[in-house]
Amino acid sequence: MKISGYYIYNNVAITAFAIMSMLSVSPRIPLSKVALLMPILLDDNITQKMTYQNYNSFDSVVTQNQVYLSNFNDRYIDLLSQVVNGISILLDLNLVSLYGEFVIAENAASYESILSKCDSKRFVGIQTAASKLLKLVKDADIVNDYHKLNIEL
Q: Among candidates 80, 93, 95, 92, which has minimal Cα distance to 31?
């Protein structure tokens, strides 16, 4: 694997933080949804837009950010190992558990304490985007969302 600035900027710690941000909104999330949303949450352009723009649906997020999502499949594949490693770190810290296809928040009371101590603009953007995205995909058909983003499985 080629090491680049992309992997340094989007490292495992950032990925673990993004997972925690998602779990603070919804304490039980399918692993497939975590993996699907991660490239969006780690894209600064999209997260910046989400802080000031309201979207009506996940479709509107996709259509209004087509330029940023043009290479989504590549970023999705590149970030899969980061997602697995981020979950592994959170498992080791007893902050999550895995049950079937779900990532489940453990010790959820500590999430607020941990997340509130992070005052980075990037972290705040990820938290805001995670909250909005999870509300948009709450009852969505995940298979359909994978097709919308042209993810090759």
A: 80
How is 40-64 classified by DSSP, letter by letter? HHT-HHHHHHHHH---SSHHHHHHH
Q: Could you give the CA distance from residue 153 to residue 144 in angstroms, rounded to a whole number?
A: 13
pLDDT digits (tens, 9 = 90+) for 65-101: 989 898 899 999 989 999 999 999 999 999 999 999 9
* Residue 27 DSSP code: S
The gap between the terminal CA atoms of the chain, to the nearest Å, is: 20
Q: Kindly state the tokens that stand for 43.
A: 């894209």
Give the Å distances, CA to CA, from 49 to 2, 133, 138, 152. Answer: 30, 12, 20, 26
pTM value > 0.85? yes
- Under 8 Å CB-to-CB from 33, ≥6 apart: which residues? 137, 142
